[in-house]
Amino acid sequence: RLGRRLSRRLSLVTKMPNLLGARLRQEFGSRDSLRQGNLYRQPGKKLDITVIAPDKSQRNLTGESPQTVIQLLSELTIEFSIPSWPDVRLAGSQAEVDPDADVSLLEAEILIVEDKPSIILTGDRGRDLCNSWLSDERAHVSRLRSCVPLYGSPLTQLGVLGPQEFARLCQPIAALAETCHAATNKMKEIIDNWESGPSLSEVFSDKFWEQYEIYQKTYRSARQLLREKARTDDDFLELCKLRRGAAKFGLQDLLELPIHRLTQYEEYFQNYLSETQNEQIRDHEEL
Fold this sequence. Notes:
- Helix content is 54%, strand content 8%.
- It has helices at residues 2-10, 20-26, 31-35, 69-72, 74-79, 125-145, 147-157, 163-169, 171-192, 206-232, 234-244, 251-275, and strands at 46-52, 58-64, 87-90, 110-114.
- The chain has a four-stranded mixed β-sheet with strand order 2-1-4-3, with no helix packed on it.
- β1 and β2 form a beta hairpin.
- α1 runs antiparallel to α2.
- Residues 125-287 form the DH domain.
């Protein structure tokens, strides 16, 4: 059984989530299996869930399966007049939470709830597009950064991910996250000084594209490693499910995000050039 196979490994880990041992013994699987009435779901069992509200106050909410996270937080969103799904993250890893996840997956977790900042339209279409890109890119950076604390570090501590495997799976995405973060800082600076004349080539620099090129070269190796681990290492597979919990993105999902983001950049450039074609933008040709 998974719990017995991992008992020796778990004894070597000095800091573990409170309920890890119990969950491993229960051997519950993926989030989807919980939604479908998994044997280990306990309908009617009430859970006390700590939530950090948008005003930074601590709230203790009570939920029970099969309630979803969005249902759990419905009264809180009404209280703070949040019209749509807010920014909800797991406190430990800062991973984005799936609104449709079963609340049983939040056991021993702390949620951070924040209202998503609204994009203020200025009437300048080019500037508004840059503001929209900045909001999307910040979310992209946050997702990429969650890979190491949600999966990489815990799986390495548990001994199911070796140092070289960690380097193949997690280091490229961590490096890309910091490059994208630097791009958001530069874009914010350009937006704040828009009247001086935007130069988006400073955001999408050679270093920016080089980091994406490096990631694309390592992506195939990471995918291959992930397939091999899933096929040959049951401990790794089950712990990935366990670590995901109520998070929106699995490990494979996170690895694929940069590939999908490249197509979004292309769409952004096309929209930007189309909307500013009659303006004197100094880096139109380069873009």
